[in-house]
Amino acid sequence: NGYTYTFVQHEGNRAIHAYLNEDCVALSRNTARSHCLKIHKREKQRLTRSLSQLSSRICLTSDLWTSCVGHGFLSLTAHYIDDEWNLHAKILNFCHMPPP
Question: Which of 16, 33, 46, 50 has an alpha carbon 20 to 30 Å from 99's alpha carbon atom?
């Protein structure tokens, strides 16, 4: 939908959260951004550590698609099987692909 971090400050978003939980504390866009970046950093470190400890091979796939409003996107995904024979798929990168 193309929402930015300012979505957390939107009146409708705050109203629905207050309705669902009156103790809900509204976030600023800067706080939302900070939380997202912290989570991204933590998960990136976790994935890097996990992939570096694999005894199996990693297969990479890419996917290119267009959203319903015509925006192009590209993703790069790592696929691997862990030591317990569980198949995993982890997105390594995701980016906007403007038309040529």
Answer: 33
Task: Give the global pTM.
Answer: 0.71
Number of other residues whose CB lies within 10 A of the CB of residue 23:
5
Tens of pLDDT, residues 62-74: 999 998 888 899 9
Give bridge partners of residue 88 from the DSSP assignment: 80
Residues of the chain with pLDDT under 50: none
